Amino acid sequence: MTVKIRTDVERCVGHARCAAVAPEVYDLDDNGFNTTPYKEVDESLRKQAIRGMRACPEKVITIEDGEDC
User: In the predicted model, is pLDDT for residue 6 greater than 60?
Assistant: First the structure.
């Protein structure tokens, strides 16, 4: 099973908090902006993906994995 991560990269303002708490999940450019509008990661990274989503002050990250986040 995979975890699907969607990011509205146009609304990202570059706080880089998602990658600060889950660097193995979120990809940023040199200025701290999330650069990946869609990504699938293994179920083993689910908790990190959720932690990064919750750390985003703009709430531009959503996760679809069939479970409650």
Answer: yes
